[in-house]
Amino acid sequence: MPHDDSIPERDKKPLAELLLSIADDKLILGHRNADWTGLAPILEEDIAYSSLAQDEIAHASAFFDLAARLLKTTADRLAYGRAATDYRCAELVEFSDEFDWALALARSFYCDHFDRARLARLARSKYRPLAELSSRLAAEEQIHVDHVDSWIHRLGHGGAEAHERMQNALDRLGDLAQTLFETNDSIRECERLGYYPGDEQSIYDTWLEGLRTVAQKAGLSVNVPVPDSNRQGGRRGHHGAGFAALIDELTEVYRIEPEAAW
After folding, report:
1. With contact defined as beta carbons under 8 Å apart, do 29 and 111 qualify?
2. What is the rounded average pLDDT of the residues 158-165?
3. Contacting residues for 16 by C-beta, under 8 A, at least 6 apart
4. Which end is more exposed in the chain, N or C (fewer Cβ atoms within 10 Å of the end residue's Cβ)?
């Protein structure tokens, strides 16, 4: 499996773009989930959800490091020094849950199951640093999946109001959930070259089966449209109306002193 110096120059840009789509997903999801610090419904969950948000940001940092090595820059510049249109995250992760706990859980449910399937796929990458990193993070991602699944079960069986709110949240985010599978030219090239083995259809089938199994046990249902192959969304830099403001907030400190060392 190749290291950075043995990867053909022509492969570095699409591979870096793939890595940025992963890192951006995790950075923005971690940022959104961190908003719940001090606000989760119970103290135990306040600590747990904050810890999981930190995990997402740490995972993002690791993928930014890999991309930075390919692009000969720094992880900080990639994370905080780009324009909003340069981010490649899915629209689902940028969605504001409006401090509705059911919506936050539904977003995590879709995203965490996707990340688990994506990491399993990346663990077979012919780019060894990516395969090794993905294998290592897979165990941590399983903790995220187990955590959100326990909440889905808890609310699904938590009485009429809890059940209704959880089902409504899953339904509301069903269409946005398909944005996790949006692709672009770089992702497709990485599939062809073996850096991202498999295809979006196979990961979609695995993901949806896992979601439905958990939801069914909770007395809930999951309805996600088949991903639109022609969608022009976050993976191509087309984000929602509030995304630029979100990035301004996230990058404010970096923009004040980009070269600061912490």
Report:
1. yes
2. 96
3. 67, 70, 71
4. C
* C-alpha closest to that of 191 among 115, 121, 112: 121
**What 3-state DSSP class applies to 40?**
coil
pLDDT in tens, 232-243: 899 999 998 899
Residue 173 phi/psi, 5° resolution? -95, 0
Give the number of C-alpha atoms closer than 13 A to the C-alpha of residue 100, restricted to the C-beta side: 17
Which string of DSSP letters, residue by residue, matches 196-211? S-S-HHHHHHHHHHHH
Residue 5 has pLDDT above 60, yes or no: no
Tell me how far apart the terminal alpha carbons of the chain are, to the nearest angstrom.
34
Helices (H) and strands (E) in the chain, counts: 11, 0
Show the CA angle centred on residue 83, arms to residues 81 and 89, nearest 5°. Answer: 95
Summarize pLDDT for 67-86 with one digit per residue, the tens.
Answer: 999 999 999 999 999 999 99
**Which two tokens mark 5?**
């110096």
State the number of CA atoms in the 13 A half-sphere of 44 facing the CB.
2
Quote the tokens at residue 180: 């996790």
Angle at 150 between CA 147 and CA 154, to 5 degrees: 140
Q: Which two tokens stand for residue 209?
A: 């089966």
CA angle, 184 then 22 then 197, to 5°: 65
pLDDT tens across 32-72, in order?
A: 999 998 888 888 888 999 999 999 999 999 999 999 999 99
Q: Which domains are present in the chain?
A: 10-256 (1.20.1260.10)
Q: Convert the pLDDT of each residue in 251-261 to its tens digit.
A: 999 988 887 76
Which whole number is the average pLDDT over 211-223?
Answer: 97
Query: Is-contact 137 62, C-beta < 8 A?
Result: yes
